[in-house]
């Protein structure tokens, strides 16, 4: 029964929270009532069985929990009257051009009155249903810091009376950059889950990110970065069937069975990249990342990868995004073109000591330079910081291979 509730949580959390947020205009109330509804499901479904329509059951239960909470808190003013009216089958007011509560909730959470990091974190919690530890790991900050950030963001929405609606058409492009950042992080959490007690891959999150990105693309068909993000996540998702071995170990790109890739997604991603190149408009960050992935997925064998083109694209990207993570990823291409010693020199000065991929990259470069003791220490650090079970297993195997070679 807990499996049924867990599956319902994956599939229905965003819908339940978004529906309540639209009706009650209160994110705290929506989140708390939804959580209570899922807690009730754990108890009731074990006795009564899973209802025919789990989503409807959860939404109805959450509405009742919300009204009960309003009554308990003696909030019998306008909010209580609104709850009575709206729960009495009264059609809600029109709130925007997109008929999707989750997108409305995303645009609310991504309002420019909030700091960018707060927008992303709040949406990951409210729409993606990620836990506080998962979000904190994604931002490389302590859990307490992330909790405070989300609490302040919800308070700001209430204090500023930020409306729950999709913005007007002329405001959409300016508001969409925050939405794209949210969708990209949601996708990444599904593609390489950070929770130690979760599956290494969470397909419901990647599927949700793709679905919502497609909707945004429908809304803004001329926006190059929307197309770029869609191409990027499609090309990345296409490789998912080959990413985890039968023993639960992550399979790196160079070792993947490329025949197992989803060719339909690869073809769609390549088509989007070609369309953006043909537009003649200078590419943005997501378009460049998509182009890099297009080069990787165009090679039928890892040995055929055009690393010179990959490095040239990263050179364009670092002019737009000077973050150390981009510099780290560029160093991987540098290692293939100019050698591991040059790449290691570029990596060592990056301020990423708390980032597992930094240590994993250093470990691989040190391994290629036959500096085994240093490589082993870097693998240990990467394993400690990695929250993904499949990735940690892969890193441990690579570290143990060093010991076997030393015998």
Number of helices, counting only DSSP H or I runs of 4 residues or more: 19
The helix content, as a percent range, equals 55-70%
Rounded to the nearest angstrom, the radius of gyration is: 23 Å
Shape type: globular
Strand count, sense and barrel status of the largest sheet are: none
Total DSSP E strands? 0
Q: Give the terminus-to-terminus CA distance.
A: 49 Å
The averaged pLDDT comes out at 87
* H-E string: HHHHHHHHHHHHHHHHHHH
Strand content: under 5%
Catalogue the unreliable spans.
85-97
Briefly note the structural class of the backbone. mainly alpha
GO molecular function: DNA binding; sigma factor activity
Family: Belongs to the sigma-70 factor family. ECF subfamily.
Protein name: RNA polymerase subunit sigma-24
InterPro entries: DUF6596 (IPR046531), RNA_pol_sigma70_r2 (IPR007627), RNA_pol_sigma70_r4_t2 (IPR013249), RNA_pol_sigma_r2 (IPR013325), RNA_pol_sigma_r3/r4-like (IPR013324), WH-like_DNA-bd_sf (IPR036388)
């Amino acid at each position: 029964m807990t499996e049924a509730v867990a599956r319902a949580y994956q599939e229905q959390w965003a819908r339940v929270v978004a529906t309540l947020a639209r009706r009650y205009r209160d994110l705290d109330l929506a989140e708390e009532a939804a959580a209570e509804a899922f807690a009730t499901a754990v108890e009731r479904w074990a006795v009564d069985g899973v209802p025919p329509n789990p989503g409807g059951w959860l939404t109805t239960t959450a509405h009742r929990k919300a009204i009960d909470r309003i009554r308990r808190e003696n909030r019998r003013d306008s909010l209580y009257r609104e709850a009575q009216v709206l729960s009495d089958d009264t059609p809600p007011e029109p709130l925007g051009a997109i008929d999707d509560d989750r997108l409305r909730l995303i645009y609310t959470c991504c309002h420019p009155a909030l700091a960018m990091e707060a927008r992303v974190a709040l949406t990951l919690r409210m729409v993606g249903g990620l836990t506080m530890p998962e979000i904190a790991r994604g931002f490389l900050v302590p859990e307490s810091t992330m909790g405070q950030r989300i609490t302040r963001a919800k308070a700001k929405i209430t204090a500023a009376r930020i409306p729950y609606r999709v913005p007007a058409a002329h405001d959409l492009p300016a508001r969409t950059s925050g939405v794209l950042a949210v969708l990209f992080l949601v996708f990444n959490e599904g593609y390489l889950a950070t929770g130690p007690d979760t599956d290494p891959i969470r397909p419901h999150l990647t599927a949700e990110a793709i679905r919502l990105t497609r909707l945004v693309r429908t809304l803004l068909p001329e926006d190059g970065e929307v197309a770029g993000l869609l191409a990027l996540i499609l090309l990345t998702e296409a490789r998912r069937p080959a990413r985890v071995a039968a023993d639960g170990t992550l399979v790196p790109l160079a070792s993947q069975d490329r025949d197992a890739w989803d060719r339909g997604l690869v073809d769609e991603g390549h088509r989007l990249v070609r369309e953006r190149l043909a537009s003649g408009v200078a590419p943005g960050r997501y378009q460049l990342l998509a182009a890099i992935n297009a080069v990787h997925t165009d090679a039928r064998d890892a040995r055929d990868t055009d690393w010179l083109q990959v490095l040239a694209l990263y050179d364009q990207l670092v002019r737009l995004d000077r973050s150390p993570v981009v510099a780290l990823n560029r160093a991987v291409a540098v290692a293939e073109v100019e050698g591991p010693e040059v790449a290691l020199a570029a990596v060592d000065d990056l301020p990423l000591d708390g980032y597992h991929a930094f240590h994993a990259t250093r470990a691989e470069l040190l391994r290629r330079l036959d500096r085994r003791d240093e490589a082993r220490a870097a693998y240990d650090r990467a394993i400690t910081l990695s929250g993904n079970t499949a990735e940690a297993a892969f890193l441990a195997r690579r570290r143990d291979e060093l010991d076997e070679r030393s015998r």
